[in-house]
Amino acid sequence: MKMHEKAQVMNAEEIRRALVRIAHEILERNHQHIEKMVLVGIKSRGDTLAYRIAENLERIENVSIPVGAIDVTLYRDDINLHESQIQVSSTDIPFEVTGKRVILVDEVLYTGRTTRAAMDAVMDFGRPAAIQLAALVDRGHRELPISADYIGKNVPTSRKEFIRVQLVEEHGIDSAMIYERDQE
Fold first, then answer.
1. The whole model's pTM is what?
2. Which of 14, 20, 82, 105 has the most CB atoms in a 10 Å sphere around its CB?
3. Architecture of domain 13-80+90-157
4. Closest by Cα among 77, 68, 76, 75 to 50
């Protein structure tokens, strides 16, 4: 499947500002529960964003929030477990989730299936007091009744379009681009 770049939807400064705003919104909503709050980034890229949000929280409120990362590959409902090419990366949740306010962080919210898989995975680690969702980009097209509590930017898309987030830690640049499948 060939794709072509259609437009940039967020540049580095817009991503930075969105993550600062998300950090402020998280603090406003959870100000009485900061000591029970943890961030869990959904691999890949959600974990990098979770660390950036934690840095913003520390700068704003002078509080250190634990950060973990979760791979939801084996929790997805669209994975073929008989496929030999399944790539699973490590999950790193170095804290207790039972009784905590877990903020899941993902780069793009689309159908909601990744979020559902992440919630299932988190529940295998314990019973959180609450789970909230932060997404850098919400592109619509939900298939499950899931919505983000914190959104960097809403970007309406068609189903033939894709949003790719690149982060400086992996790609040397911060950007969110919209791509479209070429007609064949």
1. 0.93
2. 105
3. 3-Layer(aba) Sandwich (3.40)
4. 68
In which region does residue 28 sit, left (phi positive, over 0), alpha (psi from -120 to 50) or beta (all else)? alpha
Find tokens 């634990």 and name the residue: 66
Domain ranges of the chain: 13-80+90-157
Instruction: Return d(Cα 37, Cα 23) in angstroms, integer.
Output: 12
Q: Quote the DSSP letter at residue 95.
A: S
**Structure confidence by residue, pLDDT tens digits, 53-67:** 999 999 999 999 999
| Mean pLDDT computed over 2-26 | 96
3 state SS of 114: helix
